[in-house]
Structures are given as structure tokens and as C-alpha cells.
Design brief:
This is CcmD family protein. Keywords: Membrane, Signal, Transmembrane, Transmembrane helix. With 89 residues, the chain is mainly alpha-helical. The chain has one domain. The protein has four helices and no strands. The radius of gyration is 22 Å and the shape is elongated. It starts with a helix and ends with a helix.
């Protein structure tokens, strides 16, 4: 259970690591320097495809999280089995 909590905290930490990048974008908007138009992002946002990108990204992250939790459970079972085998000798 501790491992699952640690994995979740790691993922939340990684998501929060991207927050400074967002803050820099906001600071760039407030500055008086001319803004660069990012055509790809504007076109994805305009066509509504940005939501598809976000959905795919969230699906991949959810899959990785599910895989890590399943792997943690399997390793826990193997550790318990190994411990039981060692004690029963």
C-alpha cells in the first residue's frame, strides 16, 4: 500500500513540475515583448483537436499508473511468497 501511495505522489509531483513552465508562459504574456504565435497549438485549439491530444495523454498516463499498481501488487505477492518459503524451511 505504501508503494501505491509513493507512486501516486510521484505522479502528482511530476504533474506539479510542469507548473513553472505554465507560470513562465503567463509571465511572457504580461511582458511587453512581441508574442510568437504558435500555429500548431492555435490550429489544434481552433479545431477542437487539443481535447483529443489531452485525452490521449491522460489515457496513456492512466495506463502507466494502472500498470505500475498491478506490477507493485505482483512484486508484493512474490516478496510475501519468498518470505513465507524462507520462514517455513
Amino acid at each position: 500500500m505504501f508503494r501505491v501511495l509513493a507512486i501516486c505522489c510521484f505522479i502528482v509531483g511530476m504533474l506539479l513540475a510542469f507548473e513553472p513552465a505554465m507560470a513562465q508562459e503567463q509571465m511572457a504574456e504580461l511582458s511587453s515583448a512581441p508574442q510568437q504565435n504558435i500555429e500548431m497549438a492555435d490550429s489544434l485549439r481552433q479545431d477542437g483537436k487539443i481535447y483529443v491530444v489531452v485525452a490521449v495523454l491522460l489515457t496513456v498516463l492512466a495506463g502507466v499508473l494502472f500498470y505500475l499498481i498491478a506490477l507493485d501488487r505482483k512484486v508484493g505477492r512474490l516478496e510475501k511468497q519468498l518470505k513465507d518459503d524462507y520462514v517455513n524451511r
